[in-house]
Amino acid sequence: MSDADDAFIRQSFDLIDGLDSLSDPLDVQKTIFDLVARCGFSYFAITRLPQPGERIGPNLLLSVWPEGWLSHYDRVGHYRHDPVVRHCFRTTEPFAWNEVPHEPDHAPQARRVMEEAREHGMGAGYCVPIHDAHGFQGGISLAGERIEMTPRVRRAIHLLGLYAWSAAARTTARHRKPGGRLLSARERDVLSFAAQGRTREETADLLGLSVETVSTYLRNARSKIGTRNTTHTVIEALRLREIVL
Amino acid sequence: MSDADDAFIRQSFDLIDGLDSLSDPLDVQKTIFDLVARCGFSYFAITRLPQPGERIGPNLLLSVWPEGWLSHYDRVGHYRHDPVVRHCFRTTEPFAWNEVPHEPDHAPQARRVMEEAREHGMGAGYCVPIHDAHGFQGGISLAGERIEMTPRVRRAIHLLGLYAWSAAARTTARHRKPGGRLLSARERDVLSFAAQGRTREETADLLGLSVETVSTYLRNARSKIGTRNTTHTVIEALRLREIVL
DNA sequence: CCCGGTATCCCCGAAAACCGGGAGGGCGGC
DNA sequence: GCCGCCCTCCCGGTTTTCGGGGATACCGGG
What we know:
Chains A, B: GO terms for molecular function: DNA binding. Chains A, B: InterPro entries: Sig_transdc_resp-reg_C-effctor (IPR016032), TF_LuxR_autoind-bd_dom (IPR005143), TF_LuxR_autoind-bd_dom_sf (IPR036693), Tscrpt_reg_LuxR_C (IPR000792), WH-like_DNA-bd_sf (IPR036388). Chains A, B: This is HTH luxR-type domain-containing protein. Two copies of one chain form a homodimer. Chain A is of the alpha+beta class. Chain A folds into two domains: 3-175, Beta-Lactamase (2-Layer Sandwich), CATH 3.30.450; 185-239, Arc Repressor Mutant, subunit A (Orthogonal Bundle). Chain A is built from ten helices and five strands. In chain A, strands 2-1-5-4-3 form a five-stranded antiparallel sheet. In chain A, helix 2 (25-37) runs antiparallel to helix 6 (151-171) and helix 7 packs across helix 8. The interface between A and B is large, with 46 and 46 residues.
């Protein structure tokens, strides 16, 4: 309830109001970093959730991050064990790194991730998970040697993070695939029916095609996505947003 | 940037700070309603997303909502066409009802929903969609005859909505199903492998079972969920949160 | 003008999944 | 102690899917 808190909250709201007008991702980055730096953070990053097997690097939307940490993180494969990432799957509320509950299963690797982060100057951090209609999508990470925030400031950063994500996604949108759908319309059609448990024959009837055509679409979809059977293809197509529901 | 805005923002943050200490859902309801009433809203509701075929009624966590509207809404089946609900699937940012883009497909029914809402005293509204690691979960709706909010107030309500959701979910948690899983552990195991494209034989090897056993689990899962084949079962099990990823 | 992608159809043999039975043992509740 | 559920295995027959070959046609870009 201090004046400092109020000032920070006001600045956060002003920043959010201003984000809409920015079109250069670097402007977004600078604007946000300038503000969070004021509460003790030395680093920050806005990142998408990488696909399994993918690295974090190409999924960073914006970042001011310790030299070398990222490549090390990817090389060692920390991502799979990072307790902060794992916690993002479980919570929508922002959290400080040291508040993440321990998972006995991953304890040794998890501890290693956090220790190595500390060695890179990130002894403490704060993370705002981002979720949308399709689930966990990414997050905003803030880190530094030591951090202290009042609950009110944490809330302001929560809100800031949500809008920062939108702004980062919007301003870096040009990097995304152009119209780039992997599957054709028909392939998506048959997969949608498959997801409803339809056989090829039913799908053929419903779409007015021959069973062979439906089979061809399923086969092509399999080979495009690189999946093993229809079930696998449907799941992956869903993850890739090629089909919905 | 007005004083009124600042006051509202401060009150919102105070309210959020106070939510943690409430344990009675009615306290949460009253606390929030008192605040939103001050910016012209006569009604508000916090609701889970109903499963397909389910009604909204039992999914309301908290609500101050026009008499009769809810039962009418359920009876007529407005839910399927409600453009506000549909928009929640597409956006994470809060929005005013009149900002929802038109969907040509649903135009007649969608218009009807909005007109009937207006007749029930809800000529305008504001909605905060709630998404978690599993996607769109529900939302906070605010409504009244007419509303006007500055961007800053909208942001404050955004944040308020997120924490109100947590508080509502927490305080009404006792209503939820006790441990109620539909599938057995083994059934979930085999479905998880199926989702990765494994054949029954591979799954059997991986789990150290016979193919017949795996088949039995798949069969039982099918009959429990009421699905038509493995693909369908996996998709439904995913929707029912029986399996993840 | 050719190439790549899409949309549509065809065939066939092999592999996998599905169906509807059984069956035995364990474990927890009423 | 019985009933219900879970875990595990088995069988025989039917349906569906998979894999790998085809084919024809359209359409748009380099």
